[in-house]
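RETRY 2/3 - previous attempt timed out on the joint model. Re-submitting the same 1088-residue input unchanged.
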Amino acid sequence: MTREKLRLGFNGKFEEKEVEIAPDDPVPWDPSHKFQILGTRVPRLDGPAKVTGEARYAIDQRLPGMLYAKILRSPYPAATVKAVDLTAAKKMSGVRATLAILKPGEKVRFAGQEVAAVAADTPERALDALAAIRVEYQPGPFVVDLEAAKKDGAPAVFEGQVQSKTSAGDLPSARKALPRKGNVQGPRLFEKGNMEEGFRRADVVVEGTYSTQVQTHTALETHGLVARWEGDELTVWASTQGIFSVRDELAEVLGIPASKVHVITEYMGGGFGAKFGARIEGVTAARLAKEAGAPVKLFLDRKEEQLATGNRPSSVQWIKAGATRDGKLTALHLVVHGTGGTNGGTGTSGPLKNIYACDNVKTEEFDVFTNAGPSAAMRAPGHPQGVFALEATMDELAARLGMDPLELRMKNDPSEIRREEFRIGAERIGWASRNARRQTSDPAVRRGFGMGAALWYNTGGTGPKATVIIQRDGSAEVVHGVQDLGTGARTMVGVVAAEELGLPLERVSVRIGDTGMPYGPGSGGSTTTPSSAPAVRAAAVHAKQKMAERLAADWKVPASQIEFAPGTVSVHGDAARKLSWKEACAKLPEEGVSGSGERAENHSDAWKRFTSGAQFAEVEVDTETGLVRVKKIVAVHDCGVVVNALTTESQIQGGIIQGVSYALYENRVLDRDRGLMVNPNVEQYKIAGARDVPEIEVHLVEVWDGVNNTHSVGIGEPATVPTSGAIANAVSHAVGARIRRLPITPESVLAALEEAAGQSKGGRA
Amino acid sequence: MKTFVLLPARSLSEAVQEAAKPNTLVKAGGVDVLDRLKEGIDTPDRVVSIAHLPGLDQIAMGSPTRIGALATLARMASHPELQKTYPALARAAAEAATPQIRNMATLGGNLCQRPRCWYYRNADFDCRKKGGATCFAQDGENRFHAIFDSDLSCCCIHPSATGVALLAYGAKLQTVSPRGKRTIAMDDFFVRPSADAQRENVLESGEIVEAAVLPAPPEGTRSVYKKLKEKESFDWPLVEACVNLSVSGGQIRQARVVLGSVAPTPWRSKAAEAVLSGAKAGPDIARRAAEAAVAGAKPLAQNAYKVRLARVMVERAVREALA
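RETRY 2/3 succeeded.
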């Protein structure tokens, strides 16, 4: 270990901190460092391949003799399987393998649950074979509605122990065992200070109930993979956020060594938290492929994707907040019930506990089980819901205090960075003139402005390894087993290596997406860049050291005297001994030189902090029809030192678009009487389209936190955290009535207006 | 999707002969047919394609104007004379679906498409429209369903935007079947669920829409089509309102008011027409017509908001027509 003095901070304000650096790990860059490429706007390396269709995703994979698998799913939301008869299906033309997923006596807990599977030589024949499978069910009572499921005597989703799965993207708190009564599990309890005392000290108290819907992930590429056995070795091409997690789960479930499983994800069509591990699709495809003795492709269709692959749970959040007359929070109390179907992890308390400073906080989180498809981690689990309720509460408090909502936040936000982000955002959206701009040229249409804060956690960790090879012709190769979900990870890896080597990006070949490569992180929790970039940089530094040793031997000087600058290598203080990068590489052995790097531990003594952000929304609302149009979002975020400004902005835009879609449109609708989803498609499950996307203005605040050697922090999740809350507050500002539920449809806006009208007349509707 | 035989028809007479055979579907653009085949709602043995029949896509302006059934929504939307003479129809075509769909979807297909009710469209629900015993929407998830005729055997809404506009223009449809040709007034074309929940129009087996015929609009005609939808991109409307007024000397001589997406058929409001016909184009006439239009509404448990939306959209359409 060495101790290094680092200058850390943001916005030109740096403080000196002494930080312990692991042996062999590069010292984090100093804010004065002159970058060649890092932080610039770098087009994706795979952009042309994607837009020309040359890029082959897992769903595009076709192998000679490949079979197609389909899954039979339960039509009942609750049932006991009495018998699964595959005899007729096995005899159908083209059918090569069958599999009973549920056995007699096992329970079905949601409609769409996997029951059996077949593999056949065409997808059509596989579907025909599904129809020939005879399953005898004993249907049972079920409940799909959160309020109904909470009641005494409601049909029990789980009679005995809860059998729900967690995924690698879940927050650690979701994994704790909790008490359960009927379908209600919890509370997951958090207490700080003395809440009662806090409310006694409050001059004003507001409370309200806020509800949010179930959102599905709806990645463009559905879940699935292609599995091929060669002897006892299994190769799969998977659409996954974690190739190593697929490898390890397949090895574990199939009882084979991980070294016999090879997972490849060269390109991927999106994942928002629900694509980790082999999942049931992976295990099923591998088993069918084994039985058939042929490769098997199993990709879900859009309906299956909607029913059974995960979702963001719903929430009903009761929230109470107290503040002094001058606007300091004195107490916060949150009670939340949410349903993730047969899964838990529905808490929303993260933002309330961590964004604004408050000494007295209590949160009580309850999971309510229902007979519906299980939740999975989804882009900042719990946070968009939590921010929606928290930020509405802050606006309510501001109104009661007669205070500017921005001022209230400034008074209570302990994050220097986020206060700066609020300041920038407020200026860009024109916050000060918001009230003067409520009128539009159409008397029915009102304009409104609102804001929301983002918080996410810091981020990334050990495990990842990378290799950098410098070739004799002056080119370089970086090999790192991370997958690119479409976020730009491939380009990020290339940029970091190119920056450290002082090479133009086109001289660096990037190889990723293969478990045959050095370990790469799973892409969840916004940890990919902060986990990968430091490992890649370390590998590049080590490769350069190898090169320096070689040249030093040639020049007969100590290796420590070899100096690298972009495009050149020289001996310190000796103008005569200077070579171009190409000339220097020509001196390398035939095999070039390579260095490997490993992600060191986070520097616990660095400038540790949360990731933050602030978004402002401008909306127009037709007060006669309730129709909302989001006109503009100003997004101010930080994510450490930015590796690629272009793809970072693209990530933020994606988070905002998903946030707009969540705020206004997306909603999984279940029929209460039958327990079935009525909109399992992307036509009636509404998602924002091109014309629903507002003008988006992104500002990045660069932060030198020194937590890892590249100061890298992820952005995928924080980008979507505040959008819906900011929009809801903007709609409330426009119409003068509090929006308390998502999605904000014409129906819900008109209901909010009616409620407000009823209250102003002194009666509640 | 069940395997079927695709029969590209070489002539309209061949098409109607083939279409009259059992378990056969007719497709033009194929937009709606493909959706139904994929979901397994329809399982035909044979699909007759009329997509490439020559001459059926003509738009002939005149007195009357004749629009071939294979004219695409995109062509109708961008046709300058249609825009000028029948602006509500051009608008209805322009605002439907998405650019890609409008390039494929035809006038005939738009009129004859099946409803988008999420119970009907989901093979898991054996609803009345599919011959089952239950309308699941009536006591179920009905936020997007009918507010008029919602108490009949099926409470779906009719999805045709061009049907709303053609009804407002008092158009007629020319059809061909193995039994010959006939002309059906738009007023007689759609079938209410009380007559038959399994069909939306009077077309018989093998009968194909050949063209829509629109009377020349009288002097002083002002027509407006407006729709309200949650999303700007690719969404079905919550409510459509179409008005067709002939005005002279500040007086409304004739009026047609048709609402869309509010009933199992495009919904002509005779009550609103009665308020408008013969009335002076005064300041509160739009509001009075709108109130009359929704006076008899029968909303379901989740869609009372649509009554308000219908009122607002009719009021706006009348106001715009008189402006």
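Chain A has a mean pLDDT of 96. Closing ticket.
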